[in-house]
Design goal:
The structure holds 2 protein chains of 2 kinds.
Chain A (H helix, E strand, L loop, with lengths): L2 H4 L3 H26 L9 H12 L1 H30 L16 H4 L1 H25 L4 E2 L7 E2 L1 H8 L3 H28 L8 H30 L2
Antiparallel strand pairs in A: 1-2
Helix pairs in contact in A: 2-4, 2-8, 2-9, 4-6, 6-8, 8-9
Chain B lengths: L2 E7 L8 E7 L8 H14 L22 E2 L2 E2 L21 E5 L8 E3 L2 E2 L2 H10 L19 H11 L6 H5 L6 H12 L8 H14 L10 H5 L7 H16 L2
Helix pairs in contact in B: 2-6, 3-5, 5-6, 5-8, 6-8
Chain lengths: ~230, ~250
């Protein structure tokens, strides 16, 4: 089988979705680690210098653009597969099993993924666009050259309760998407073994599914509470 | 017991199809689900009406013919049970039972509840065999096989090709079936020489038949009357990925 044929099969496409998905899983860890500096009440020094470093380092910029392409590949192939899956059952059942044979969130990957995609677009236009192309205030810390004050932009945004609610909602979608997504990607790679299944399930559900989204969601909530 | 049956009636593959309701009284709890249909069909024939077409053969849970999607469940509500082994004690007096055929583009309806599952045969024909004669049964232990592997191959070989996995899957995916057929050969030494070609050919045929892809919801495993595990799907993925990366 040629590569072109291989990546055109259902499993080949799933492999691409899984691989890009696992890459995105590694990204959320890095993103969350950086975000915690938002909670440091130092007038934004830690966060702004971190943001400036991320925004100007060549390698990180390369990865950042790669990341956006990876998200698009992940979404486009997943949509292709979903269209194929829908076509595989042209006449729907009158009665469905509900949650008796599978978990609700495992059937909602496309829905949660779409919610996440919309969230990412809003999130990027709000902060990433402001940082790179917007007109935001500048600050300088000691000897360090002037940097954009993204810290102020973020704290200002999270004064609004509806924006906080939107971010929490986005993280609920991330939670459900990853609870199934991590395990599902491992299964697609053929990683299913009695000695490691427990660990894969634990990482998928507790680390990626609960801890990471919770960590992301806590930040806007804390910033909101501090500004009441 | 008195029951109301809502059964899918469809003249042929071109017909749009519709549900029809039937009242059946004097249903014994000892009847199998198929016997309920026998009684109903007898009545329909006596009334000069067209009996309901449904597949059945062995009626002892091993042929895989009795494809009925009952109240949203493949082969009804009981765990690891075919329709013929489902008994009416699963239901209560006055219940309404909705019976539909397997729904998948790859399984076109022939009539009423009978569907054409020859897509499965074509997947087998694409590679689910060993192409050389492996001879007579050799002496026990002449070919060393790990007991764990032998048991796993046997468990995969328990697949009866009923199509419940496809019926239960939200994507009408045939991955559990294909993975069982690939596993039973991949786990044994006789199946190893052709394992790459087999994985590629069977997956290609599976896609060609119009089955959906697997999203690992596990519904197939939950509904399989023979308890085939989705660990077989992981094995199929490993087989296919290895083949894709290393086949010549």
């Amino acid at each position: 089988m040629k590569w072109s044929q291989f990546f055109n099969t259902s499993i080949g496409k799933k492999l691409l979705v899984g691989a890009t998905g696992l890459f995105l899983c590694s990204f959320v860890i890095v993103h969350l680690a950086g975000n915690f500096s938002l909670l440091k009440e130092d007038g934004g020094e830690a966060f702004n210098t971190y943001a400036a470093f991320m925004g100007h380092n060549g390698l990180i910029q390369f990865i950042a653009w790669g990341l956006k392409i990876v998200i698009l590949i992940h979404a486009v192939i997943a949509i292709q597969l979903t269209i194929r899956n829908r076509a595989a059952r042209p006449v729907k059942y009158a009665v469905r099993p509900g949650n008796k044979t599978s978990s609700w969130y495992s059937r909602q990957m496309a829905v949660m993924g779409s919610v996440l995609f919309i969230f990412i677009v809003i999130h990027l236009s709000q902060f990433w666009w402001a940082m790179h192309y917007g007109d935001i205030g500048k600050v300088s810390y000691g000897a360090v050259t002037e940097v954009g004050n993204l810290y102020e932009v973020v704290w200002f945004a999270f004064k609004e309760s509806w924006i906080v609610a939107l971010y929490v909602l986005g993280m609920v979608a991330l939670s459900f998407h990853l609870i199934h997504g991590f395990k599902s990607a491992c299964q697609t790679f053929g990683l299913n073994h009695p000695k490691y299944n427990g660990l894969i399930s634990f990482i998928g559900v507790w680390f990626f599914g609960i801890l990471i989204p919770l960590g992301f969601a806590v930040i806007p909530v804390v910033i909101y509470i501090k500004q009441i | 017991m008195k029951l109301t049956l809502k059964v899918w009636r469809q003249q042929n593959s071109q017909d749009k199809g519709r549900f029809e309701s039937y009242q059946v009284s004097d249903v014994s709890t000892d009847m199998s689900f198929l016997e309920l249909f026998d009684v109903l069909n007898e009545r329909l024939i006596n009334e000069g009406k067209d009996p309901i077409a449904f597949d059945h053969d062995c009626r002892e849970g091993i042929c895989g013919a009795c494809s009925m999607y009952i109240n949203g469940r493949a082969h009804g509500p009981w765990h690891e049970t075919t329709t013929c082994q489902l008994h009416m004690r699963a239901y209560n007096d006055g219940d309404t039972i909705v019976v539909e055929p397997w729904r998948a583009a790859a399984f076109p309806v022939i009539k009423d509840l009978a569907v054409d599952r020859s897509a499965f045969d074509r997947i087998i024909q694409a590679g689910g065999y060993i192409s050389v004669n492996t001879g007579n049964a050799v002496d026990a232990n002449a070919i060393p096989i790990d007991k764990v592997d032998a048991d796993a191959a046997f468990a995969a070989a328990a697949c009866i090709g009923c199509g419940a996995c496809v019926a239960a899957c939200k994507n009408s995916s045939a991955m559990l079936f294909t993975s069982a057929k690939i596993s039973q050969l991949a786990l044994l030494p006789q199946g190893r020489p052709e394992h790459k070609q087999r994985a590629e050919d069977m997956v290609a045929q599976m896609d060609k038949e119009g089955f959906g892809s697997c999203t690992n919801t596990g519904a197939c495993e939950a509904e399989c009357p023979k308890g085939i595990s989705i660990t077989n799907i992981a094995r199929l993925n490993r087989e296919f990925i290895t083949a894709g990366f290393t086949s010549k």
